[in-house]
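On clarity, I found the account of how folds are encoded harder to follow than it need be. What matters is that the chain and its backbone geometry are given together, residue for residue. The format is easy to grasp once an entry is in front of the reader. For illustration, here is how one protein appears when written out as sequence plus structure tokens.
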Amino acid sequence: MPWIDTVAYDDADGKLKMLYDRVKGPDNNVDNIMMMHSLRPHTMEGHMAIYKYVLHHSGNTVPKWFLETLGVWVSSLNECDYCVEHHFAGLKRLLADDARADGIRQAIEARDIARAPLDDKQKLAMEYARQLTRDAAGLSEKLIVQLRDAGFSDGEILEINQVSAYFGYANRTVLGLGCSTKGDILGLSPNNSDNPDDWNHT
């Protein structure tokens, strides 16, 4: 049970019911992280908008599986098992290479990104996410220059920044309110990237 009251799908009405219908998955399942917002539906609306735009938008050019990888990494650094499990399932589905996905997870769990089956450019992005998560004030322009020199455009650097920052927020929502995966369907996401207003999870 979470540490605050939440409203179940069947008990929802008004704006909350409308938002639940936008974010639900199969059998009216609403992820527990979204239910954490049920007493203040306007915060769920804000959460879903930023989640969809930073992670599941057709305007992004960093591969979605790698954005999910950054999310798993940040969540692991923050010891947020809920987000690790959800987004690793999404990463695995998107990557469609179980052995590589498992290798990435093993490197994340060992805190040894050097051994992850990622290229040097991606490992540099992982280092940026690590520093932003663990020592944001210690970041300098030098790492941005390195990302640019490695081949990331400034827009892609922004994507990396926003995904890393979003997971810091999501992890604290989960950890601060006692959110668990009980009853959730792992790995669902709003996959219709061409429509930013389509929040349904599949």
About this structure: The mean pLDDT is 94. The first helix runs from residue 14 to 23.
